[in-house]
Amino acid sequence: MTSAYRLVAFDVDGTLVHHPDGKTVWQVLNRRFLDGDAINGRRFEMFRAGRISYPQWVALDVGDWIARDVRRAQLEEVIRAELRAMPGAAETVAALRRHGVRVAVISGTIDLTLSTLLPDLEFDRVYTNRIWFDDQGRIAGWQATPYDVTGKPEALRALAREFGVPLERTVYVGDAWNDLGVLREAGLGIAFHPKGDDVRQAADAVIEDGPLTRVLDVIEGGHDA
Predict the structure, then answer these.
(1) CA separation for the pair 18, 72 (Å, rounded)
(2) What is 7-20+85-221's CATH topology?
(3) Distance CA 177, CA 194 (A)
(4) Distance between CA atoms of 62 and 25, rounded to whole angstroms?
(5) Which of 7, 24, 70, 219 is 20–30 Å from 41 (CA)?
(6) In this predicted structure, what is the pLDDT of residue 142?
(7) Residue 41: which H helix or E strand, with range?
(8) What residue ranges do the domains of the chain occupy?
(9) Which uninterrupted H or E stretch holds 95?
(10) Which neighbouring-strand residues pair with 206?
């Protein structure tokens, strides 16, 4: 790989992992442990309308899991049953790291998604929501990421400063509405299996289908998908 890009950041849901109907980990867990899909829609609309903040949204979901005594093993069981590692995810991350590219995650997923489905992947930095558990597997606490939606560009800028990489030599790979800002911020924004024309328009390159390894060809070639 002779690409000029030296820092690549990935989204998780829809990018490093996938669901056959395009759902996120939050959606599948709430569908299983709360009141189906309705609560996902209600809380999404509350957030988009500004009635709740992002940390409050996370607190509502995780708080309801705690109230129902949902344990780590149950969460992992649903994640394994409903979600899969994106084909080519491990190969893509490994190839980037072999060539000295910094690799990061900037995502609104939960850390349990990666540890359950892609436990062997190595990243230089991982920015996600975090949940921790007690010895019985009960949820003991959580921390909402400051780096989702409008925070994603901030995270990319911080990583670029930390690793001494000019912003124009950074890449972001994502698929959804919460990636719009960071796709525009990155030197190369790649819409991977995009969920809407707004995502396509925000990106420099679009990959409509296929394995994640197609990202390597785009990075190598610049803006050609």
Answers:
(1) 20
(2) Rossmann fold (3.40.50)
(3) 9
(4) 12
(5) 70
(6) 97
(7) helix 38-48
(8) 7-20+85-221, 25-82
(9) helix 89-98
(10) 191
